[in-house]
Amino acid sequence: MTIWIPDLAGARGPRYVAIADAIAGAIADGSLADGTRLPTHRDLAFRLGCTVGTVSRAYALAERQGLIAGQVGRGTFVTSGRPGLPALAPGADRPELGAAGIVGREAPGGATAPGRIDRFRQDRAAPQPAAGLSALRLPLEGDPILDLSCNLPNVRLARASLGRHLAGFGDDARFTDLLSYPPASGYRAHRAAIARWVARHGVPATHDRVILTAGTQQALAAAVMALLQPGEVLLCEDPAYAGLRHVANLAQVRLHGVALDPGGMRPDDLDRAARQTGARAVVVTPTLQNPSTATMDATRRTEIAACAARHDLIVVEDDVYGELPWERPPALAAIAPERVIYVGSLSKCLAPALRFGWAVTPQHLAVRLAEKVSAMTLNTSPLNAELAQRWIAQDAEAELPALRRDVAMRQRMVRAALGDLDIRGGADALHVLLMLPFGWSEPDFLRAAREAGIRLAGLDAFRLAPDEGRAGVRLSLGAAADLQELMAAVERLANLVRRTRPAAERVI
């Protein structure tokens, strides 16, 4: 048995979360290799001076993250170690999208550190994954396709808490009330819970300004249909969230792109687009924009809000990824609450199947948005809203840090496996962007990846004018809850890029 003992000095939050985080960190930095046997629950509890129950909860959390596994009669073992990968302290050295790739970012303490990914690329001596994971092969008949085209968190992290709350529904005296039709906006208690939740990002909300929805997609659709008439122009980032095309089709409005730079939507181009089109609304994702992962700093957010005020634009702020960064500026809705509709959900930080989201609106738009939601689905399921409220109240404080560390670990592992390939995007994000070298077109690479058993999203799916940018693909990291399955797929993709690049067509 290993004598590994976690150092919990300075750890914040619940003790069991700190233990699970220490396991993740030790796996990442090589202190705990794959197959290492961990101390027994009782032994570790004795050494740390905590209860056996605390260690049991920690091991259970680490097992849901795919880090360890218990074997009856034998003990608990590390199952996904990748020796040689540098550790990343919570909140430190998180790289972001730069004009030429990955650059350093200011850490929470205020100091700017060099981009850790640059150090990955310099370190060629790191041990490589087993050759068996790297074999490029066609899937056997009947093999499932691993779908890495959709952004979602590691849903294993939500199993225990959501299962516990679901099991307790039947014993709740209020359960019968949850089986009836609620108001179109949702029950007051659920809306008040969301008002408190979004206040953490500076959004001034009261329950009467909150409309509950079936996820962010419905919130976006309700907001656009409440603001615009068919045929009008909706401004948005370019490249934009692919689902916005479906919203535009449903609302029968025309999308007009606004340019991005590494800091997010450009205020000068928003100013130009507003003058040119006479648009009355803009959709913007200030935090981890999809697909670029650009995050606006506080100055850029203020500039966007000022531009919206000059042109009397209503801003629809999509903050669906807002819970993933360790630190982020206040929402646009905190700067200009009178002209921002703030939408979000728990799909990217808990589980997409919950289908629970919200729109926080200026008071004068609340009734109009509620009418649009009612026209689409009558109301949002109060069962889902109750489940979300319980998770927020009882589990979010412990599970959000665990999710962020899970994302950081996946980013480290995937970037190390992709090595010197052109990888872009922020390390707080649920995906990376893999830019394709000369000789690969997006359709060819997507087809080849599919033949290798992997489904990806090409960047043309996000561009308003396809074929106008460099070829690349979006590789989602949370879709494969099992880390070894994810790494096997990533290594096949790396080999696909390096070893089987098609030759340029001959011209005779």
Q: Which ranges are low-confidence, i.e. pLDDT below 50, for 5 or more consecutive residues?
A: 81-143
User: What overall form do the CA principal axes indicate?
Assistant: globular
Cα end-to-end separation: 67 Å
Helix fraction, binned, reads 25-40%
Strand residue content? 5-15%
Counted by DSSP, the helix tally is: 17
Radius of gyration: 23 Å
Cross-sheet strand order for the largest sheet: 6-13-12-11-10-7-8-9
The biggest beta sheet is recorded as: 8 strands, mixed
Structural class: alpha/beta
Mean pLDDT rating = 85
Number of strands: 18
Topology of this protein?
Elements (H helix, E strand, L loop, with lengths): L14 H15 L11 H8 L3 H13 L3 E4 L3 E4 L17 E3 L2 E3 L12 H7 L8 H4 L11 E2 L11 H10 L19 H12 L10 E4 L2 H12 L5 E6 L4 H9 L2 E8 L2 E2 L1 H11 L3 E4 L13 H13 L3 E5 L13 H4 L4 E6 L11 E4 L5 H12 L4 H13 L1 H23 L4 E2 L6 E5 L6 H10 L2 E2 L1 E2 L13 E5 L6 H17 L9
Parallel strand pairs: 5-16, 7-8, 7-10, 10-11, 11-12
Antiparallel strand pairs: 1-2, 3-4, 6-13, 8-9, 12-13, 14-15, 15-18, 17-18
Helix pairs in contact: 1-3, 1-15, 2-3, 7-14, 8-9, 8-13, 10-11, 15-17
